[in-house]
Structures are given as C-alpha cells and as structure tokens.
C-alpha cells in the first residue's frame, strides 16, 4: 500500500492567510490524505481538529519555530496533543559558528527528551546548509548522532541542492526518518516546481520511502509560475501516478 500523501501548507501560505479553512477544504477536495501545518492562523487546536475531522484530513506533522520549542515547550506540547499531532518538527535553524551549533544540539537534547516523554516525536527538517561540515561530519549528521530521539524529515530537494546523493542519504537514516519532503527541481532557474515536472528522481525517492519506515510523503513547493493551489494539485496527481506505476 502506498504511503499517504500530505501537503506542507507553507506551499499555499497566501491562500491560508486569506481563508485558512477554505484552503483546507480545497486541499481535501484535491485528494490529499493529510496536511502538515506551518502556522495555525489564529485557530485553536479544538477548531482545527474538528475541521480536519469534517474534511477527512489527517495531521502529518507541524512545523513549529525553534524559538517556540525553546521558550514555551509545555504550551507547544499541550497544543499538539489536543490537535492530535504526533510529529513536532523544527523547520529551520542556522548558526555561524561550530560552538553555536553544538549549543543548539544541547538544547535539542532537552527538547527531545520532553517531547518523547509526552509520547510524541521530535523531528528536524533540513535545508542545504546542514550539509556543511562540522569537523569531518555534516551538521545534520552531528545533530542526529548527538541528540537521542531526534528524527529527521528529510527534504530531498535540499539534499540534492547541497550536492549530496539523496538515495544514499535516505538509506543512511532510514530508521530515523518518519517523514519525507518531496519537491521537484527546475534547472533554469534552479528552483522548485511541481512534482513530476522537474529533473529529480521523485519516483525513486518515493519507492525508497515505501521500503523504509517513512509514515508520510509530504509535498512542498516554494516557487511558482501559476497559482500555488493549481501547482500543488498537479503535484499530487503526478506523484500518485508515479507511485502507482
């Protein structure tokens, strides 16, 4: 059975800002199995949970700013538990020095312990800069090796963008990778595009996810030459064709 497919709602952030629940309705109509949040647009956990139930959408995860994890973790955990979300994802961090990255890892260890104690998963989402080196290892490897219980939402686009072989890296962390971000890449200019309309080996990435412990395939797109809602619908249709072949 193919993995369920979610939409990272950052892809349609303008539509969400204008009409959040109306956008969720359109996402459900497209045939997505779930959504991955990137903000809640003033809605309570109870409101969101009721709306998702109405639409038949599941929660794949939520991107939550690192500062919220660091400064108000108890409130974050309580909200996500009420929402029914298992995967609490730190979507971005960047530091200039090795000392700062190591201090960040120390803070992640504290966060991971509390999130796990609450019965939830703490996950880090990469971009390209985590494939710079700290000593002899990639920053992302240092974080995953050094933070017990930390899992990864591997963004395959950014792994490729960093010049790292995606398949090899997916295999390396297969047992710590509950979520995978899929976005395709145009060559000129180099930016994201609809799944199936670019040059990345999306079918291979999805097959590897199917063979591993991945729970959700998550479509994300960050650059558009048409309405974002139209683009993410095309991406879903194309991904379903790829995984069904």
Topology:
Elements: E1 5-8, H1 13-18, H2 20-30, E2 34-37, H3 45-55, E3 58-63, H4 66-71, H5 73-83, E4 87-90, H6 98-117, E5 121-125, E6 133-134, E7 137-138, H7 139-146, E8 151-155, H8 156-161, H9 166-172, E9 179-182, E10 184-187, E11 190-193, H10 202-211, E12 216-219, H11 228-244
Parallel strand pairs: 1-2, 1-12, 2-3, 3-4, 4-5, 5-8, 8-9, 9-12
Antiparallel strand pairs: 6-7, 10-11
Helix pairs in contact: 3-5, 6-7, 9-10
Number of strands: 12
Helix content: 40-55%
**Count of spatially separate domains:** 1
The amount of beta strand, in percent, is: 15-25%
Order of strands in the sheet with the most strands?
1-2-3-4-5-8-9-12
Keywords, separated by commas or semicolons:
single chain; 245 residues; alpha/beta; TIM Barrel; 8-stranded parallel β-barrel; two-stranded antiparallel ribbon; 11 helices; 46% helix; globular; isomerase activity; Xyl_isomerase-like_TIM-brl; Sugar phosphate isomerase
Description:
With 245 residues, the protein is α/β, with parallel strands linked by helices. It has one domain (5-244): Alpha-Beta Barrel (TIM Barrel), CATH 3.20.20.150. The chain is built from eleven helices and twelve strands. The strands form three sheets. The protein has an eight-stranded parallel beta barrel, surrounded by five helices. A two-stranded antiparallel sheet has the order 6-7. Helix 3 runs parallel beside helix 5, helix 6 (98-117) packs parallel to helix 7 and helix 9 (166-172) runs parallel beside helix 10. The model has no long low-confidence stretch (mean pLDDT 97). It holds the Pfam family AP_endonuc_2. This is Sugar phosphate isomerase.
């Amino acid at each position: 059975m193919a993995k369920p497919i979610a939409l990272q709602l950052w892809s349609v952030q303008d539509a969400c800002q204008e009409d959040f629940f109306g956008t969720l309705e359109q996402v459900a109509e497209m045939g997505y199995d779930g959504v991955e949040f990137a903000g809640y647009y003033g809605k309570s956990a109870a409101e969101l949970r009721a709306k998702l139930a109405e639409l038949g959408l599941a929660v794949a995860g939520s991107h939550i700013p690192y500062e919220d994890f660091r400064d108000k973790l108890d409130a974050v955990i309580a909200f996500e538990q009420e929402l029914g979300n298992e995967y609490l994802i730190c979507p971005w961090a960047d530091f200039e020095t090795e000392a700062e990255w190591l201090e960040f890892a120390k803070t992640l260890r504290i966060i991971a312990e509390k999130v796990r104690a609450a019965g939830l998963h703490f996950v880090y989402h990469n971009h390209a800069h985590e494939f710079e080196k700290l000593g002899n290892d990639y920053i992302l490897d240092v974080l995953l090796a050094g933070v017990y219980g930390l899992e990864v939402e591997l963004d395959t686009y950014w792994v490729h963008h960093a010049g790292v072989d995606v398949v090899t890296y997916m295999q390396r962390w297969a047992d710590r990778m509950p979520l995978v971000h899929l976005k395709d890449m145009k060559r000129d200019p180099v930016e994201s595009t609809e799944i199936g309309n670019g040059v990345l080996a999306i079918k291979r990435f999805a097959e590897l996810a199917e063979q591993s412990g991945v729970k959700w395939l998550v479509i994300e797109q960050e650059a558009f030459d048409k309405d974002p809602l139209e683009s993410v619908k095309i991406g879903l249709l194309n991904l379903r064709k790829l995984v069904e072949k």
